[in-house]
Structures are given as structure tokens and as C-alpha cells.
Design a protein that fits this description.
By secondary structure, the protein is mostly helical. 65% of the residues lie in helices and 0% in strands.
């Protein structure tokens, strides 16, 4: 027997025109209206999250980022101390 899936309920008031449109779209895809709406909402949520999490850089920022990767500055004193401390704790690599 598969494990129980936790669910939550979502309710929304929509116009009768939108309801009819959703019902027709679901029927055209051979799906229930609930399945159609849940799928569409999930896809929209995923897109919104991906758009919010993607780092967008201007062309100048992209060039600065690439240059920093290709020609990094010398390590600071703090970084050198951290590296030495790391070697003390975990051994040299």
C-alpha cells in the first residue's frame, strides 16, 4: 500500500467565464478540471521561482565576473589564515 500523501485545500473565486474556459481546456486535454488547474498552477509557480532565483547580470557585470574568475586577486591575509587553520584541523590537501 503506497504511503499517504499529505494534501492541502486551495479555494478561489473566479468568474463564470474563466470557469468555463478552464473546464473546456481540461476537457480538451482529457483531464479533470482539478488536475488541469493544479498542473497549470504548479507550472506557473515553478516558473516564478526559477525567475526569482536566476541571477541576471548586465553585460559589464558578466565581463567583471568572468575576469575575476580568470584572474583572481591574490589571497588576503584572512584567507591565508583560514587556509592554515583548515590544514591544522583537517590536514593538508
Amino acid at each position: 500500500m503506497p504511503p499517504a500523501v499529505s494534501t492541502a485545500r486551495l479555494e478561489a473565486r473566479i468568474s463564470t467565464d474563466l470557469h468555463a474556459m478552464l473546464k473546456r481546456a481540461a476537457e480538451l486535454q482529457g483531464r479533470t478540471m482539478t488536475d488541469f488547474v493544479v498542473s497549470a498552477v504548479q507550472e506557473a509557480a515553478q516558473r516564478a521561482i526559477e525567475q526569482a532565483e536566476v541571477i541576471r547580470l548586465s553585460l559589464a557585470d558578466q565581463k567583471r565576473f568572468a575576469e575575476a574568475l580568470l584572474s583572481p586577486p591574490p589571497p588576503s591575509d584572512a584567507l591565508l589564515r583560514a587556509k592554515a587553520r583548515h590544514a591544522e584541523l583537517f590536514g593538508a590537501e
